[in-house]
Amino acid sequence: MKLTKEEQQMFNGEMGEAAQQSMEILVALGKIYGAEKMVEISSAQISGVSYKTIGQAGLEYLDDLARKGARVKIPTFLNPAGMDVEQWEEMRIPKDFAKKQLEVLDAYGKMGIMKTCTCTPYFIGIRPKKGEHVAWAESSAVAFCNSVLGARTNREGGPSALAGAICGVTPEYGLHKDENRVAKLLVTVKCELKTVADFGALGSYVGKMAKTNYPAFEGIKSNKEEHLKVLGASMAATGSVPLFFIKGVTPEWNIADDAQRIEITEKELKATRAEIDSKLKPNLVTIGCPHASLDEIGQIAEMVSKKKPTCEFWVCTARKTKEDAIKKGYEKPILAAGGRIVADTCMVVCPLEQMGYQITGTNSGKAAAYLPNLCKQRVAFGDAEDILYR
């Protein structure tokens, strides 16, 4: 790889052990994927934040980097942690888990990383422009960043995103290059998509069909970011899809001449929804995967103020969005209805199985894909109006 003078100095250890270790990771990745050089990045998003997913080995790795003087060079923020740092006791998070989770966040903080803990940074003002290079790790954020914003990032692992944050660069390969941003699956949608769960089910179906190909959609009319984030998140969970196009909606539209073509009708949509849903009554409903926007919180607040749900429920969101929701008066009706606005975390990385939950309701295709394996949950899938009142 061709390194700049500064990059070579980091690689040689002239800027400290942490920078050297990080540049070695980036160079190794670049060689694996055939990158010729590095590209400067404007921000980084780190996954591997929940103690549930990284464990003691991950915590020790972060502590070691911090002790070596690791400091990020660019704005860097975190994926959801395993708990709400301000109300973990009320959520019944085990104390030993909470202690370790706080140590993880402390290690990141020592490196100069913002403790945002959200999978939807674009809802709190972190929105790279079209063509801008970043290094983001959370799968749904990567899909939104590439597809809806038109910025450029590969689906980084936690260590590679952190290495990029420390060095300020990432290898130029994959989705950082024009020639690779091409759809090879054209999906014609011939059914009406009305709800978040509809977009989640569509994403679940297409993700399995696409696998590692990038899909392009015709026939989707909605440009609501709340719908697009769920679509991308579901495809990323079931098919590792980091980029998609929607005709007339996304800033890019680039389809290969030999792209495979499929149609989605009401039949496929209904079958997918039925396949995901256990039909069981949930003992916890979780809304906000990816994290809920302010508008989504407002919609839930209005709904539960009219009729109290039949089970406990969480609305998962970013800390800043929760603060905005409180100012809007959304928290009071949610609390009165037996729910809570949960910041910093989500149902997928929270230790639900240690907290007594067995059946979790969601309107997210991503959560429906991950909850059975990561949290040992049975899934009640459907529109919010359905799962809150089963």
UniProtKB/TrEMBL annotation:
<feature type="domain" description="Phosphomevalonate dehydratase large subunit-like">
    <location>
        <begin position="1"/>
        <end position="388"/>
    </location>
</feature>
<comment type="subunit">
    <text>Heterodimer composed of a large subunit (PMDh-L) and a small subunit (PMDh-S).</text>
</comment>
<dbReference type="GO" id="GO:0016829">
    <property type="term" value="F:lyase activity"/>
</dbReference>
<keyword id="KW-0456">Lyase</keyword>
<comment type="function">
    <text>Component of a hydro-lyase that catalyzes the dehydration of mevalonate 5-phosphate (MVA5P) to form trans-anhydromevalonate 5-phosphate (tAHMP). Involved in the archaeal mevalonate (MVA) pathway, which provides fundamental precursors for isoprenoid biosynthesis, such as isopentenyl diphosphate (IPP) and dimethylallyl diphosphate (DMAPP).</text>
</comment>
<comment type="similarity">
    <text>Belongs to the AcnX type II large subunit family.</text>
</comment>
<keyword id="KW-0408">Iron</keyword>
<dbReference type="InterPro" id="IPR007506">
    <property type="entry name" value="PMDh-L-like_dom"/>
</dbReference>
<dbReference type="Pfam" id="PF04412">
    <property type="entry name" value="AcnX"/>
</dbReference>
<protein>
    <recommendedName>
        <fullName>Phosphomevalonate dehydratase large subunit</fullName>
        <ecNumber>4.2.1.182</ecNumber>
    </recommendedName>
</protein>
